[in-house]
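Before surveying the methods themselves, it helps to consider a single example record, giving the amino acid sequence and backbone structure tokens:
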Amino acid sequence: MARFRLDETDHQILDILIDNTRTAFTDIAKKLNISAGTVHVRVKKMEEAGIIIGSSLTLDYKKLGYAFIAYVGVFLKKTSQTKFVLERINQIPFVTVAHVTTGKFNIFCKVRAKDTEHAKQIIFLLDDIEGVYRTETMISLEESLNDKKRLMHSIFKEL
């Protein structure tokens, strides 16, 4: 399969969409001084090439009462239990991210909770999964950096 080439106009479209995926194509077109049809065609091509995969919604978890974030490293008795444990982790809705990792932990999870008591209950659920040897938890004091644009611009420079 041929590699899809992004040009500066594609970069600008992605730059706008990464800030707000709901930006109307007509608004993007006005900002970039191109037609809305051009924006539509380019976004469609990027979707077909797999560069754009869906769109996402950003929630203010603090306003929803889920400002507490913990990261939980999961140690397994046997690495062969990884798939089974991930299936059980997937049943805990407050575990929002899980990575299979190398190094200290077998699985590394991000947990969203209401408060420390709620986080403790979630961590106990993780600990109780068959195959989990133990867990190690780190509490996030604040999310200081979450910037997809910097990475995107670095990738653009390489292309």
Strands lie at 68-76, 95-100, 107-113, 132-140. The two ends are 17 Å apart (CA to CA).
